[in-house]
Each structure stands twice: as C-alpha cells, then as structure tokens.
Amino acid sequence: MIEMFDERIVATGRLPLFGFFVAFLVTFVLTRVNVRLIRADARWWFRNVTAGDVHIHHVVFGVVLMLAGGIGSLAVPDAYTGLTVAAAVVFGMGSALVLDEFALILHLSDVYWTEKGRASVDAVFVAIAVTGLLLLGIRPLGYEGIAPDPGTGILTRVYVVSLVVNLVFAVVTLLKGKIWTGLIGLFVPALLIVGAIRVARPGSPWSRWRYGPDSRRYQRAVRRERQFRRPLIRGKIWVQEFIAGRHDLIPPELLQRRAGAAERARRRGLVRAERRATAHAARKAAARAERRAERRAARRAARRAAARAGAARAEDGAARADERGSRRGVAARIPPRVPSRAASRMRARAAARRARPREEFLPGFRPGGRLPPADPAPLGETATPKPDDPP
C-alpha cells in the first residue's frame, strides 16, 4: 500500500493534490456533522458563531483559509515540498467551507436548509469527482502523452482538432442540461459524444431553443425524464440527505432567526413610516407658517398703504384748508361793495313788478274791479263783428 502510494502519488508529484483532496473531504464531513448537531440543538455541542445580531457563516472562514493557502502555495519555493503540501491542505479546508455554502453565494440568501441548499452538496460532489479523477491520473481532454511532432506536426494538428471537437461536445452536453455527463466527459471524452447526441433534458437551454412544446423530441425527453432521470434524482437526494441532512426541514433556530429578521424589518418599516410622517408634518407646518407669514406681511403692507393714503389725504385737506383760510383772509381784507341809489331803485322796481298779479296787464282791467262781461249771442246766431272791432 505504501509502495503504491509512493509510486502513484509521491513519485508523480501529486502529493499536494492528495493533501488538498483529503483536507477537502475531512473538512466537509466535519462541517456537516457540526451543522447537523447545531440544527438538532444539542446542548453539549457548539453554537453558531455570532457577532451581536450578525450570524457569521463558515463561508467567511473558508474564504480566509483559501486566501492563506493560495498565497502560501505561491510564495513557497518548489524545493520545500512539506510547506507546499501544508498550503494545499489549508486551501482544501477553505474550499470545503466555501463550497458547503455554495447555494448561499449563488442565491445571496440563507437557503442552507431549504431545497435550494442542495446546490451546495452538488458543488461538493463535483469537486470531489474532479479531484478524484485527477488523482487517478486521468487528465482532462486527454492532453497527457501528446507531444509536438518535430517533423510534419501532424500529431499536433490532430490533437488540436480533437481538443476543439471535445470542447464543442462538452459545451453542447452542458447546454442540454447534462451537468455530470459534461464534467466527467472532460476526462472521458466518449461520454461527451453520447451526451451531445442524446436528446436534451426538459427545461434546459437547448430544449428551450430547439424543441417545440408539441415536438416528438420534447415528448421523448419528458418521457425519459420521468422513466430514468427521476429515479436517479431520488437516489442522489437520498445520498445527499444521508451525508448532509435533509434540506426540506427548517430548524427552529432558523425559523426564529427568520422571525427576528422579519420583526427587525417590520420595525425598520415602522421607523421609516414614522420618519416620513414626521417629515410630512414638518413640511405642512412650515407651509402653514409660511402662508401665515405671507398673510401677516400682506396685512402690514395694506396697513402701511392705508396709513400713507390717510396721511396724503390729511396733507391734502390741510393744504385745502390753508388755501380756504388764505382766501378768507384776502376776502376779509377787501372792503364790502356799497350799492348805488340807482341800482337800488332798479332792484326795487323789479321786485315790485314781480309781485304784481298777471290780470293787471289785461285790457279793461281796473284795480280792485272785475273783468267786463262778454256779449252773449242768441242761440243759433253768430255774433257779427262791429266795424270798429279789428278783424
């Protein structure tokens, strides 16, 4: 066993990769045991790491460890194999912590124990499969053992063409929704040909682009999904739940944390509503105060205008009074005019003439007598004018 390890791992230079693989597996298993004990609310076990009200996820520690391991592997010289292995071990531990919360990074939400949290287990399984294939000496797309041809270069051209074809098949297989076939096909190119030829899974990008809802290919894809894919998915979910725990049962702590988050969100909403109401009331009060100030200013301006108008009227009246007083003074200084005797007699005659009755001016009128009676004519006759009478 030791000789096989020396021959397959140490002699081939894959010791740092082996350290990464072992550290990744151990860290993932310990992390899942830890979170499942915390989920079960075991009193004798650790609790979640918090800083006040903030829950610090283990992806934070994973990022720190990955950074330390990556920088350490780059800084250590090639001759120091032990330090290189130690850096690979630190990097593997950080990678396990990060990929264990891959769903949280993908959805930017705490979906660790929900259906979406299974994406983290899928990511861990992919990392384990790829690392295990690399440890077995299988290289992606078969690049190992191909050397440039110093002569015509035909082998190099053939390798480049096969590499391009395999990459195209890998892209087509992934677009058809066959993730595991595409990833493992990078190491076993024959799987890429099978995945690229077979029909796409329902709901995959290739199915949406190429298959109609009533097409035969889509119906065949649905039928194969129901017959073959779903039993495999149920088996994979059973393995995931056996290793990582069920993802459809939300623990009480998470429910409490969600309730607390909802309560904090409600309080923040109330505070924001109160602030908006206060700001609205302040704006209304300021508007009312501004309107009152404008009305007061208008009243003051009207009073000032009325005072100026009254002062102007008073000045005008005083000026007219002064003018009348000056006129009276001038009139008082002028002596009164004495009428002459002839003018007095003329005014007396006119007054007496106006006082005489109108009958005085009629013919035959005697003062104190009556008018002479008229000469009546007999009935049926007309009065004949006298010769002396005027016509």
UniProtKB/TrEMBL annotation:
Q: List membrane-spanning regions.
A: 15-35, 56-76, 82-107, 119-138, 158-175, 182-200
Give the keywords, sorted. Membrane, Transmembrane, Transmembrane helix
**Which segments show compositional bias classed as Low complexity?**
331-343, 362-372
Biased composition (Basic residues) is annotated at 297-306, 344-356
* Stretch list, region Disordered: 266-391
What is the superkingdom listed in this entry's lineage?
Bacteria
Keyword check for Transport: no
Regions of biased composition (Basic and acidic residues) lie at 287-296, 313-326
Protein name per Swiss-Prot or TrEMBL:
Integral membrane protein
Q: Which organism is it from?
A: Actinomadura chokoriensis
